[in-house]
């Protein structure tokens, strides 16, 4: 079993990574951050803050930057980039996340992307990811996760989020 976080570098995906890491302190299943990257799509990369407005699209740089962001928060996390066509719709992106979760015997997906921060609907990646019944889904809707005493005793959120702020 494992814990999976669809990671896009947003503050909500950082918070989801923090929460997954807290759960992992208790469950000891391992955390994997998964990023679906539409190859060559500069607009998508800019919209997600992966490149600046004047930067060129470089897949290797984007992957390494995301990997470093993940490891700044959870040093032991696996990072798995998944590549799709340059104009892949939400359904394709969500489908790849679902398939990854199923293929890797995931017990919980911690969903905290910008799309999941609002009501999860059929047009968001979140709605499609939560539809799978082979794993549970935890939606992280706050950039600073609510305190859960037992989890905070194991690993305080503030400590992990401070790492994200310093390294990003």
Automatic annotation (TrEMBL):
SUPFAM superfamilies: Adenine nucleotide alpha hydrolases-like (SSF52402)
Protein name, per record: Universal stress protein
Organism: Halobaculum halobium
């Amino acid at each position: 079993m494992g814990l999976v976080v669809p990671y896009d570098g947003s503050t909500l995906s950082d918070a989801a990574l923090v929460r997954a890491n807290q759960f992992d302190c208790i469950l000891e299943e391992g955390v994997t951050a998964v990023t679906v990257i539409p190859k060559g799509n500069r607009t998508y990369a800019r919209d997600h803050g992966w490149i600046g407005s004047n930067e060129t699209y470089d897949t290797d740089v984007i992957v390494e930057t995301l990997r470093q962001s993940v490891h700044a928060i959870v040093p032991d996390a696996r990072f798995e980039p998944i590549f799709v066509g340059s104009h892949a719709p939400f359904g394709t992106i969500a489908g790849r996340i679902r398939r990854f979760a199923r293929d890797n015997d995931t017990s919980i997906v911690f969903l905290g992307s910008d799309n999941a921060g609002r009501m999860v609907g059929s047009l968001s990646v979140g709605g499609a990811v939560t539809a799978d019944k082979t794993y549970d889904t935890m939606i992280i809707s706050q950039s600073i996760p609510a305190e859960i005493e037992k989890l905070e005793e194991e690993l305080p959120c503030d400590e992990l989020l401070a790492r994200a702020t310093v390294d990003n």
